[in-house]
Amino acid sequence: MKKRRFPFIQLFLAIIVLALAGCGKDNLYTDLSEKEANEMIAILKNRGIDTSKAAGKENTWIVQVSSGDFSDAVDILSALGYPKDNFASLGTVFEKSGLVSSPTEERIRFMYALSQQLAETLTHIDGVLTARVNIVLQENNPLNEVISPSSAAVFIKYRRGSGVEDAAAMIKNMVTNSIEGLSYDKVTVAFFPSDLSDYDVEAYNASHAARSSNATFWVVVGSILFLLVVAILATGYWYWENQKKPVSIPPKTEEE
User: Does the structure show a pLDDT above 50 at 82?
Assistant: First the structure.
């Protein structure tokens, strides 16, 4: 009859598998360009968050972080304007199709494409997180005596402390010169600061570094305790196995 052995090895392997499963990473953002994925990884790594990227579908990339850093990573990237908005280009908006568009449809598509181009340009200004441009181009009848002027409204969400609001005049000039027939006084720019400022991000960096240091300390302590327990169990198992072995008595010889 085969003796039942203490499942020490199986228990040890189960603990290792569970530990490795807990170290897995979650997908933070998908469908990213390689440039944007690298920028996001650099931002998170500089703030002490371990992150990596993986290939996605159709030449896109996935940014991954550990489960414990997921919410912090989202907050940091959102405060810095990531992931970036995707804007439509003129070529995309006016892509040729089999259908013939009416003059009204062509006009609406032109305003949309123009607003997309202006919004994308504004996002390249340091400190701008999100930008939107709404354009109203009046279709004036030359026979009318009263001419309705065109107008534009610009929405900008910016990082507090970046000084973007000081560039309001330059932003209005840029929009005015980009739209034919638009006057400077018909452009409105509204600034809205982000909830998380540069100071908040720096404060988070310090707190995260402290938490990471404490976490590293406890990981080391936990690893030492785990190895100590394993050593005690291994010693006990070895002693228990040896106690079960029968003591062999040598046979007596004739001379005795």
Answer: yes
